[in-house]
Structure formats: C-alpha cells, structure tokens
C-alpha cells in the first residue's frame, strides 16, 4: 500500500468532507449543488419569531389587565354595596287608627320655604284660591326674594315664581291673593327653591290654598281593633354612602297577607304631620317617606344623607294586623343590603303604640 504524504491526506479529507455534505443521486453520482441560509432569510425568520413573541406577550398582558380591572370592579361594587345600606333609627311606632274617610273645607297651608329649605305640609283634593304670606328681614334697600315653586293644580304639574320685594312686601305681610304668581289654584306644593335674596338676611314664604282636604284614616274617631299604620325611621350605616329614597322598595308580610311591593304615594308631608292633624290621606298598601334633619344637614333632594333620617309611613294591607299577630316589613334599596323589620302587634290595640 502506497503511503500518502501529509498533503495528500489533507486533500483527501477535504474531499470527503465536501462529499459528505452533498446529496447522493441515482447511479452513485454526486451532486455538488449546495443550499444554506442567506442573511435575508435569517432576518425574516428572526422577525417572525419576534412578532409571534410580541403578540403572545400582548395577549398575556391584556388578559392580566382584564383580570385586574374585573377584580377592581368587584371590590368597588362590594364596597359600594356594603356602604350603601340603611339601618333602623329608634323605635317602630304603630297606630290603631280606624279607617274613616272624610273631608273638610277651608284654608290649609300646603308648604313653606325657610331660608332656602323647603317644608312640605299638606295636599288638597281640590282648591279654589291660593294665598301667599312672607316674613322678611333685610339690611338695606332695595331688596328682593325670588323663589321658584313647582306645584300641582287641577290642570297638572306647573311651575311659577314668587317675587317678594321691598315695594310689594306690605301686601304679603299677611295672607294675600297669589293669583299674580299662580295661574291655577295649588292643591299641592311639590318643591320650592331659592333663586336669589340680595340684601336679605332671612326670610320665610308660605303658600296656602282654600279647598277640600280628604283623608282615609282618622285619629279622632273610635280606635280600630287592628294595627293599621306603621311608622319608623331610617338612617345611613357607618359607610355613610347617600341612599336614593326613590329607588327603595317596601314589601310586607304577615300570617295571611303578602305584598311584594307596596305602592309609593307622594304624601310625605301629610304623613309627617299626621300626629298634629290626626288625619292621613293614604289607602291600604301604600307607603311614603319624609326626610327630616337639622337645618345644618337637611336639604330638598331625595337622597338620604349624613345627618338626615327618613321617616317611613305605611298603611298595613289586608285591613290591618290583629292583636298578638306578627308581621314583617322589608326595606329593599336599589343597591345595598335589605333591612328586615319584624314586629308583633300588642295584645291591646291603642291609638299610638311602641311595637316590639
């Protein structure tokens, strides 16, 4: 065997390396065609990997953000519901008033505004004339007090303005015809709002109508043998999140009566003053509210807020609750926990009772 030189061994190794990387074809022929990555192809592949990784990262991050946002919403909703609750404030009062429909005619004060705070009193079933009275303290002249009045008449809901000035004040120091302000006699005052009071330190403006006051329950007649009216007060819980009273639903249940949603009526002023008037113009299965509070806190909106209490008055459906019978009232806010009030009618029904 011929001994190869170092150069010949190197050339043979080089040849074998080249042939090993090539593809063999038919009859043992060697193809010297060779393929490989160019710089452009490598860049395309790398770019594809980067794009795929970026899309995947975006999907993962977006899923994380979505989960975080949903968790935040859940926590926020939970906190809002936990702080949007009401609780019972004080005792639950029952009335054994007999259903004794009647009516009376004469002058009745429907409501008044005292330095910007409106007080709703009574509502009439009909009216023939409306009067206004003002009490004003001023520091200099000229002065005026202007308030807007939203009221109900036989024609429907109307809005007017009462303007008391240093020039017409003498006329309205006592009850005076208010036809200059009211196009139709008022049967109910819905709201009074202050517009302005330059050079005035304090004022009170009253609205009164001559008409017919109609009621269904009379506290001066012989007392009923059943509990017919229930009254209690609500206040905010520790969260002190304002509660929209117009979004509240009341349900009632006793041993033989269930009403899932009592009917709301706008008789808050009448119910608030029932202890003085001894009359209540509400039917069975109806309820109303009236927000009370000090001058520092009380305002004219429908929100139960810090420092305020909502007086709830309801007429028991089904003719009333018999003595020693249990009943339940549920207060269901639009948002927040339901308040359940369970009480028992006393063994002896009286005009006014503290229920336990």
What does this structure look like?
It is built from 4 helices and 24 strands. Strands 3, 4, 13, 17, 19, 21 and 24 form a 7-stranded mixed β-sheet that branches. The termini are far apart. With 356 residues, the protein is α+β, with helices and mostly antiparallel strands. 29% of the residues are buried.
Which strand-content bin applies to the residues?
Answer: 35-45%
- How widely separated are the two ends? 124 Å
Per DSSP E runs of 2 or more residues, the count of β-strands stands at: 24
* Mean pLDDT figure: 86
Number of distinct helices: 4
What characteristic shape results from the CA principal axes? Answer: flat
- Gyration radius (Cα, Å) is 41 Å
Largest sheet: 7 strands, mixed
Class by SSE composition: alpha+beta
Please trace the helix and strand order, writing H or E for each element: HEEHEEEEEEEEEEEEEEEHHEEEEEEE
Kindly state the percentage of residues in helix: 10-25%
Pick out the low-confidence regions: 21-28
Topology:
Blueprint: H1 6-20, E1 24-25, E2 29-30, H2 39-83, E3 86-88, E4 92-95, E5 98-114, E6 117-120, E7 126-138, E8 144-153, E9 156-165, E10 176-177, E11 186-196, E12 200-218, E13 229-236, E14 243-244, E15 249-254, E16 258-259, E17 263-264, H3 268-272, H4 274-277, E18 279-280, E19 286-293, E20 303-304, E21 308-315, E22 326-332, E23 339-344, E24 352-355
Parallel strand pairs: 17-19
Antiparallel strand pairs: 1-2, 3-13, 4-13, 4-24, 5-6, 5-12, 7-10, 7-12, 8-9, 8-11, 12-18, 13-21, 14-20, 15-16, 15-22, 19-21, 22-23
């Amino acid at each position: 065997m011929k001994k190869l030189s170092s150069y010949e061994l190197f050339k043979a190794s080089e040849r074998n390396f080249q042939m090993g990387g090539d593809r063999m074809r038919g009859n043992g022929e060697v193809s010297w065609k060779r393929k490989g990555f160019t710089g452009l192809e490598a860049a395309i592949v790398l770019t594809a990997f980067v794009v795929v990784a970026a899309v995947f990262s975006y999907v993962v991050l977006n899923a994380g953000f979505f989960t975080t946002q949903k968790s935040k919403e859940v926590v926020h909703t939970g906190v809002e519901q936990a702080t949007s609750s009401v609780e019972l404030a004080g005792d639950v009062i029952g009335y054994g008033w007999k259903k004794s429909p009647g009516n009376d005619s004469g002058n009745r004060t429907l409501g008044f505004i005292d330095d910007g705070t409106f007080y709703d009193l009574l509502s009439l079933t009909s009216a023939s004339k409306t009067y206004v009275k003002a009490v004003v303290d001023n520091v200099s002249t000229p002065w005026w007090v202007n308030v807007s009045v939203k009221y109900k008449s036989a024609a429907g809901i109307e809005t007017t303005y009462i303007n008391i000035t240093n020039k017409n004040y003498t006329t309205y120091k006592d009850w005076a015809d208010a036809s200059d302000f009211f196009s139709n006699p008022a049967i109910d005052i819905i709201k009074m709002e202050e517009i302005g009071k330059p050079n005035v330190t304090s004022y009170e403006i009253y609205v009164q109508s001559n008409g017919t006051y109609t009621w269904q329950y009379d506290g001066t007649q012989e007392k009923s043998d059943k509990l017919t009216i229930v009254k209690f007060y609500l206040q905010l819980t520790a969260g002190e999140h304002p509660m929209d009273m117009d979004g509240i639903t009341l349900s009632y249940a006793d041993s033989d009566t269930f009403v899932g949603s009592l009917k709301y009526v706008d008789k808050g002023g009448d119910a608030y003053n029932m202890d003085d008037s001894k009359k209540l113009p509400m039917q069975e299965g109806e309820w109303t509210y009236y927000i009370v509070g000090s001058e520092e806190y009380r305002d004219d909106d429908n929100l139960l807020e810090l420092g305020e209490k909502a007086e709830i008055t309801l007429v028991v459906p089904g003719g009333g609750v018999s003595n020693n019978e249990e009943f339940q009232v549920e207060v269901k806010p639009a948002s927040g926990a339901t308040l359940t009030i369970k009480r028992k009618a006393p063994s002896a029904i009286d005009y006014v009772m503290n229920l336990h």
